[in-house]
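Q: I'm writing up a methods section and want to include an example of the input and output format. Could you take the sequence below and give the corresponding predicted structure tokens, formatted cleanly so I can copy it straight into the document?
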Amino acid sequence: MSIRLYNTLTHKLEPFEPLVPGTARVYVCGITTYDLAHAGHARTYTTFDLLVRHLTNRGYDVTHVRNVTDVDDKIVKRAAENGEEPLALSARMSKVADSDLQIIGCQKPDHEPRVSTHIPEIVELIEKLIAKNHAYAVETPKGQDVYFSVRSFPAYGQLSRRNIDDLLSGARVETGDIKKDPLDFALWKGAEGEAFGFDSPWGKGRPGWHIECSAMAEKYLGTEFDIHCGGMDLIFPHHENEIAQSEAAHGGRFAKVWLHGGFLNVDSEKMSKSLGNFVTIRDVLDRNDPEALRYFLLSTHYRGPLAFDMEKKEDGRVVFPGVDEAERRVEYLYTTRELVVAAAQGAEPVVGNVLQGQGKIVASAAADVASALDKDLNAPVALSVLAELAKAGNDIVKQIAKMKNDKPVQDEARKLAAAWVNALDGSCAQLGLMRAEAKSFFVRTQSQRVRIKKLDVRAIESKVAARHAAREAKDWAKSDALRKELTELNVEVQDVEGGSTFRVLL
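A: Here is the clean output for your methods example:
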């Protein structure tokens, strides 16, 4: 089955048909690096990391470009507040954002162009627009500004489905406005006398936000490419203006398919720095495992809104219930995998003729995940395949335990267990999940829970040992009392052959 994607430009679900067969050129609007990346950014870039993974898994040669906006008024303002150079601030924040995104499983793009190193390309594109009468320069107290003439591009509004006359009726006309038309937008802003700016034919200044992406996309992907991605808040004006600039400059089409991710909402409002309701990726990772955050972000279809709930506990801790639940599910996958690996005991991964129900699930799991992603990246359906597979894995382990007196059947079930491990690994890889060794996962999650709950591990180990001793002595009252004490600490005791172990619950 072919990949089908919802194209914002046409408002239709369409088969993906690349401009050059076998290839996929993808541009993703990156972060404006003046602060830490927040959970809303994590959702956007996890979505489009999933897109790139799936295109690659389906055999496409993908070129993935995600820019870094390191020239922006917000960066200049924050840098001045911090007493540092704007590009130094941006480089520092960009490095942190890169690290955070990689920790949650987002692969590095093939190209990460920065605005500051692409000023010549931006200037060249602006000059082309002026030469074609789609842009004009005007004098200002800070030098020359350059504006794009919206009415020179009749197709303006095609992406956002907005009418120019409707836009004009809502436009604010400032006293002394130097633009020829209120709808025109800046390609270059003069910055004479300011500390931060770049030389240009129009004097010292800084590029407008929209022209940056047009120029960088063109350099790395050409004047026409396959897929342009970003959050829904970028449809207008950013992406609408990108289309106008690029198509006015070169003619033809800019991007064939436009994908837009839904908002991450806090109290029914979009999470954003401007609203002050954001939680950084690092805030979440201070409490939860990186794979839990990724699982949570994939749990709702990328085009829909995703509620990010926060609760404040009596001790002042802020918790994220949705991410907590996702962590339990990820932990269940790792735990089940360990049980099935033990049950397989080195058997060759061949699906046998026993346990037909589980066999069918194992045989089709990876294909079912891929099929779900073919349908407009339907990650929630793909996650449901993992849940079904995990249940099948536990059923296989139970069946193996019951087959002690039927060695041929048990051996066949062990082969199925080995096949199950391969099926889980292949299915999870498509989603960027279960990237760690199981031991590493359990060590890091247990260490994190001990830290945030401020538990005394030695005291817990002492109670677990005392409970085991009480059980050996058949002192059930003392054993039960110690278990209750441990339960109140959110510690689950697991009795195994020769002793007891424990794990800290969320």
